[in-house]
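Hello Y.,

Per our agreement to keep a running log of every chain we model this quarter, I'm adding this entry. I've kept the format consistent with earlier entries: sequence first, then predicted structure.
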Amino acid sequence: MKFNIITLGCKVNAYESNYISESLENNGFLFCDDFTKADIVIINTCTVTDTSDKKSLKMVRRIKRENPNAILIVCGCSSQNNKEAYENMDIDILLGNKDKSKIPQLLKEYIQDCKRYSYINDERIMPFEDMFITKFNQVRAYIKIQDGCDNFCSYCIIPYVRGSIRFKDYEEVIKEAQSLVNKGIKEIVLTGIHTGSYHHSGHDLTDLINDLTNIKGLERLRLSSVEITELNDKFLAMLKENKVFCDHLHIPLQAGCDEMLKIMNRKYDTAYFWDKINKIRSIIPDIAITTDVIVGHNYETEELFNKTYAFCEKINFAKIHVFPYSKRTGTKASLMPEPVAENVKKDRARKLIALSEKLEKKYYDKFKGTAKPILIEEVKANKSIGHTSNYLRIELDEILEPGQIYTRIIK
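Predicted structure for the entry above:
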């Protein structure tokens, strides 16, 4: 039987989908890149914003419309967060965020007895669900080392749908990375819901980074995201000495004013953030620092937004990922008064996106005329496209081999 898997949302979902796909192939199922022709369709959903939920639900309806005879499996954050909505959609196998690794087994049982299965776990404390991949569907491979979050930022539903923090076995991470490198992977991204919290068997994230970068053949190691409060002196010392770790950190800011950071229940203020960024740049002056910022959160006045705008400009990020605030039922922010009008949110988002574009160009221009190694990710229209260690997106007017690193002059 042929299967197709549709992934919505973050790198953690991408890793989990990759594991599900590999597990199904190991159990005799065949991957099909066209969901309308697949016998089985799996949707790994996202709920981080209201738009994410709508996309997830829309995708379920689309599959049922365009491939009504397929066995439909739905899992992930949106189904975890909206159990009743999904239970009313005639889904064959419905899961939340627990037991994704059991999908091959559940599918075989369904094929045998045609009995629908639905299980949405509602416990926050649970073990790490072991997954191990030996290949990845992109040239840059992800490894999920952590799951869950205990921060409970006011706007965020993820701690409620992903559970408490838990971690992958330390030695298993190293074995998995070695397995991927053995298959020719040059760059690995460590990912999780709260990646910087990683600790296992007396080791922390910095220990893991140092041990992984000793793997022969691994040329780049990157973090998907890390909180500013987790960049301690030990991590900064690693940053200074480690030549495999990429010159790029994605550090969520969320708001550039102390008033909004407190309302959001973030664990730092702007002075702390500013000081830590300066320490990082004293070690690697040209490091790319990218970030996430939410605009239009409850209580955000024009004055407070302007503070965030000015702080982002002052920090001089390489890129800002801008998110208009999205109400998530069950979070503290969903109960707060003084919501910001949708048109105001959109206007603030446009302003911050324009700033991001300006800063992104400014950062890119610093490297024009310099030689940089580029990991080629795809080739199309006689162009090779890839990224540098500091995450500059480069297009080259030549045909090169995806998955390989080439040094070229940045134009």
